[in-house]
From TrEMBL:
InterPro entries: 5peptide_repeat. It comes from freshwater metagenome. This is Unannotated protein. Keywords: Repeat. The lineage of its organism: unclassified sequences, metagenomes, ecological metagenomes. The keyword Repeat applies.
Length: 215
């Protein structure tokens, strides 16, 4: 199908008019099952249950994902130009290399940083967030296994209940961060600023022993 806009050219010598038609972008199949690389641009997907699905490389630009369940989904390398994510559930969703800027994020506690969704319950395993200013972020109940947070500003970040196994926190500003019930086994805290950090029932050792002092 082609969307045609008539473009008239008045040719003085020949005295004739011509029209030109440009090919249109094909409409997305909004009823398609979610899958890797699916085209959902411009679709109303509000309230749909996409939990656990693979939406990596999907085109979600201009889509309405209000209240959509995206828990534990794969969103890596998806396109999200002006996507409406208001109230969407991104807990456990894997992201990275996200293209574009969403129109609305799920809540004030969420942000899109370096192509990753950062917020409570996020799955940021292996993410490279080194050097970023994430001060005051809510990363409670998140998974940050082997994440690179070296030299990042993590002052006052809420890590309560999160898993930072093998995370690189070297040189990071962790002042007044909350590590209540956080797992920091084999995390690298070399040179990190631990001023005023909160430690309660924190797991730092391989045997799972909890402690209320810095690792």
């Amino acid at each position: 199908m082609r969307r045609c806009g008539a473009i008239l050219f008045l040719v003085l010598l020949g005295g004739f008019a011509a029209s030109s038609c440009a090919p249109s972008v094909p409409a997305a199949d909004c009823s398609a099952a979610p899958h890797r690389g699916v085209d959902f641009h411009g679709c109303d997907l509000s309230g749909r249950d996409f939990s656990g699905t693979d939406l990596s490389y999907a085109d979600l630009s201009l889509a309405n994902l209000t209240g959509t369940d995206l828990r534990r989904s794969a969103l890596t390398s998806s396109k999200m130009y002006l996507t409406n994510l208001l109230g969407a559930d991104l807990r456990g969703a894997r992201s990275g290399l996200i293209e574009g800027t969403p129109l609305v994020l799920p809540a004030a506690s969420w942000s899109l940083r370096r192509g990753y969704f950062v917020g409570p319950g996020a799955d940021l395993s292996g993410a490279d967030l080194s050097g970023l200013n994430l001060s005051g972020a809510d990363l409670s109940m998140s998974t940050l296994i082997a994440a690179n947070l070296s030299s990042a500003n993590l002052a006052r970040v809420n890590f309560a209940g999160s898993v930072l196994y093998l995370a690189n926190l070297s040189g990071a500003d962790l002042s007044y961060a909350d590590f209540t019930q956080t797992e920091l086994i084999r995390a690298d805290l070399t040179g990190a600023n631990l001023t005023g950090t909160i430690w309660a029932f924190t797991r730092c050792l391989e045997d799972g022993t909890v402690q209320s002092t810095p690792c």
